[in-house]
């Protein structure tokens, strides 16, 4: 048992490798900025969930606030919860279904459901109190694939811990690792001081990778 | 001896599943998350030594080897004895180092196979759809379908170069009337009427079935990555979803092969 403890303590010292830019189209600084913003977007999304879910007997005002958070959450996603059109790498315009969310319940992965439906169902769940941890661990793939016209696509991985109570008892305690597709686009805007580049970062489908 | 001791440590690491009693809560999951090979990208980074299994010391002379061993599914040890496993894995590691093998997305020596369920004639059929990374004419990366496995379940038999159904030699004088019966009695094996010089093409066969609506997509099952990058070896990578250090995308199978055998393996994967 003591040996096990020592080994696991040893494992806590995680070596973090430097991030390499794989394409000359994006600088190291831009990549770091994008990574920080991806983490921020994921944390924003996770922070909306408890506000939407809790509590089951919402007043009209609380319901209105929950709908506001749903709208805010959907803003983080490509297509904002609706089907969206995109240009593939061969130059064809194609349709993509609305982004989906996959969850676990009692250790089993559920079928992915459209994000808008997921958030609305979340609002109706019969819990008194809901807690969702913000990202304590995230990994963003080193490779962002260039899609042309300043657009990139990649993947990020994070832990989501979802706890809910009813009648003072913990009824949901799901922890899983999720993968989210990330869409990054370099855009230029006119400002009083001339043109300025900025990065638009949007989230895509969220999928369960492993359930703990 | 040192490697055997290291292997013992590795086994201890991978079977150490119930760490929750020690750490509890978020720390425990953070440790699992760090060890878990979350993506193909992370697998390649660890394989190339650009990233490491958490806790390994890069100053250790066996660091690269340990990092490499931890990319194998631990259950492979149980399929042979541990000394054989160490010997084989060490040989692969030495080959990777000697040949300076680096896995990369843009390599043309790896493939993804998605095992997929389809419905064919009201029956559920499992096929392997094989993808390969490619570059579009616009010089952008993408995946394309380059092979299909399991079509023999639908009557496809490209390997059969001899067995044919033929049409009577005078049928040109009779406006090929014999075909009325051939379509009636041999519809399920009609490709056997092809020329002795014509090969069937699995991809065309598959696409025709899909586009005609005869083969309907049902669901995705799982993905296997096939790597042909290491000289004299092929290996496969699968996702292991389990509550232990040895989880995520790991080498599930490896094989020492001659270059001819490797070519055969590749042809089998791509059904050509």
Topology:
The complex is a heterodimer of chains A (212) and B (272).
Chain A (H helix, E strand, L loop, with lengths): L1 H11 L15 H26 L6 H15 L9 E4 L5 E4 L3 E2 L2 E2 L2 E2 L3 E2 H10 L4 E4 L5 E3 L4 E4 L2 E16 L2 E23 L2 E18 L1
Antiparallel strand pairs in A: 1-2, 3-6, 4-5, 7-10, 8-10, 9-10, 10-11, 11-12
Helix pairs in contact in A: 2-3, 3-4
Chain B lengths: L1 H14 L4 H4 L1 H11 L4 H8 L15 H7 L5 H5 L2 H17 L11 E11 L2 E13 L5 E9 L28 H8 L16 H10 L3 E13 L5 E8 L7 E9 L2 H12 L2
Antiparallel strand pairs in B: 1-2, 1-4, 2-3, 4-5, 5-6
3D structure, described in words:
The complex is a heterodimer of chains A (212) and B (272). Chain A contains four helices and twelve strands; from the N terminus they run αααββββββαββββββ. With 212 residues, chain A is of the alpha+beta class. In chain A, the strands form four sheets. In chain A, strands 7, 8, 9, 10, 11 and 12 form a six-stranded antiparallel β-sheet that branches. Chain A has a two-stranded antiparallel sheet with strand order 1-2. Helices cover 35% and strands 23% of the residues of chain B. Chain B is built from ten helices and six strands; from the N terminus they run αααααααβββααβββα. A six-stranded antiparallel β-sheet of chain B has the order 3-2-1-4-5-6. The chains are: A alpha+beta (212), B alpha+beta (272). Chains A and B meet through α1, β9, β10, β11 and β12 of A and α1, α3 and α4 of B.
The fold-level CATH name of chain A is: Nuclear Transport Factor 2, Chain: A
Order of helices and strands of chain B: HHHHHHHEEEHHEEEH
At CATH's second level, what is the architecture of chain A?
Answer: Roll
**Largest protein interface, residues of each chain:** A-B, 39 and 43 residues
Total DSSP E strands of chain A: 12
Helix content estimate of chain A? 25-40%
């Amino acid at each position: 048992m003591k040996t096990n403890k020592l080994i696991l303590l040893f494992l806590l010292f995680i070596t973090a490798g430097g991030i390499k830019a794989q394409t000359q189209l994006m600088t190291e600084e831009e990549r770091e900025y994008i990574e920080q913003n991806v983490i921020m977007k994921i944390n924003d999304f996770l922070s909306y969930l408890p506000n939407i879910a809790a509590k089951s007997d919402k007043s009209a005002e609380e319901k209105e606030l929950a709908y506001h958070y749903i709208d805010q959450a959907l803003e983080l996603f490509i297509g904002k919860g609706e089907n969206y059109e995109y240009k593939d790498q061969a130059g064809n315009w194609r349709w993509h279904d609305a982004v989906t969310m996959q969850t676990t319940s009692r250790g089993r992965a559920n079928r992915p459901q459209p994000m808008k439906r997921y958030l609305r169902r979340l609002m109706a769940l019969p819990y008194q109190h809901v807690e969702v941890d913000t990202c304590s661990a995230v990994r963003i793939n080193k490779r962002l694939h260039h899609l042309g016209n300043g657009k990139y696509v990649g993947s990020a991985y994070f832990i989501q811990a979802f706890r809910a109570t009813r009648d003072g008892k913990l009824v949901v305690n799901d922890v899983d690792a999720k993968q989210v597709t990330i869409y990054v686009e370099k855009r230029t805007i006119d400002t009083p001081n001339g043109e300025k580049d900025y990065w638009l970062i949007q989230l895509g489908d969220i999928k369960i990778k492993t359930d703990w | 001896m040192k490697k055997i001791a290291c292997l013992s440590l590795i086994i201890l690491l991978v079977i150490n599943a119930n760490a929750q009693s020690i750490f509890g809560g978020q720390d425990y999951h953070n440790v699992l998350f760090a060890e878990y090979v979350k993506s193909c990208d992370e697998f390649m980074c660890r394989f190339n030594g650009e990233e490491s299994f958490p806790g390994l010391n890069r100053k250790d002379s066996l660091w690269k080897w340990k990092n490499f061993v931890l990319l194998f599914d631990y259950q492979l040890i149980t399929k042979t004895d541990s000394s054989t496993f160490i010997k084989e894995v060490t040989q692969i590691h030495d080959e990777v180092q000697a040949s300076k093998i680096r896995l990369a997305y843009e390599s043309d020596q790896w493939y993804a196979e998605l095992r997929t369920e389809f419905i064919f004639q009201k029956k559920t059929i499992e096929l392997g759809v094989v993808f390969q990374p490619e570059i579009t004419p616009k010089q952008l990366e993408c995946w394309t379908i380059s092979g299909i496995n399991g079509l023999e379940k639908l009557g496809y038999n490209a390997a059969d170069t001899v067995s044919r159904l033929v049409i009577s030699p005078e049928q040109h004088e009779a406006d090929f009337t014999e075909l009325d019966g051939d379509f009636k009695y041999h519809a399920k094996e009609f490709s056997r009427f092809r020329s002795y010089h014509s090969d069937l093409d699995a991809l065309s066969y598959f696409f025709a079935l899909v586009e005609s609506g005869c083969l309907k997509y049902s669901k995705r099952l799982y993905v296997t990555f096939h790597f042909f990058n290491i000289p004299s070896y092929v290996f496969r990578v699968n996702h292991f979803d389990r509550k232990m250090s040895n989880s995520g995308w790991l080498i599930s199978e490896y094989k020492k092969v001659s270059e001819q055998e490797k070519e055969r393996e590749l042809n089998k994967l791509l059904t050509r």
